Amino acid sequence: MSPEASIVAGRVLGLCTDLSADLEALERVRAEIDAAVDESNAVLPVKARAAMLAVGLHAYYGAVEAALTRIAREVDGGSPSGADWHRTLLERMAREVRGLRPAILSERSVLVLRRLLGFRHFFRHAYAVDLDLSQLERHASALLQDHGSVVGDLERFLSQLRAVAEAVPAADES
Which pLDDT score, from 0 to 100, does residue 1 have? Predict the structure, then answer.
């Protein structure tokens, strides 16, 4: 294998490892959100349940955004910048970059993640606002319903990356 092919294969495998860790973190956060909406937690004070859900939703979006930022940096050559970079990142990940990568996110995932991004912005800037448990439960239920779409999109891309990593040495040997 040439040094260049070795570098490419190493970077792709490193990205695969990082994305796998991101997916594991996403699954842990999903389980925490699921536990927070579980009826058995109704014994907790309302503020405690609201805080659990708010932190979980914030962490979920953060885990997805970390994976998308990693993809943008490693595959696209950089992540967006500017005041609206979070939204731009979602939109960019929903589009194919011809000759470089397929679209990462489906329309369904983008819709879910846009709502979560809006919540995340609110949560980060709402210092003196009481959290509305019923609204948080609606956010969490919608997220849990569409979690499979988000994870499926990321897993599909991870599978494609693994195929690329396996093909690099084979292409170099021919």
Answer: 66
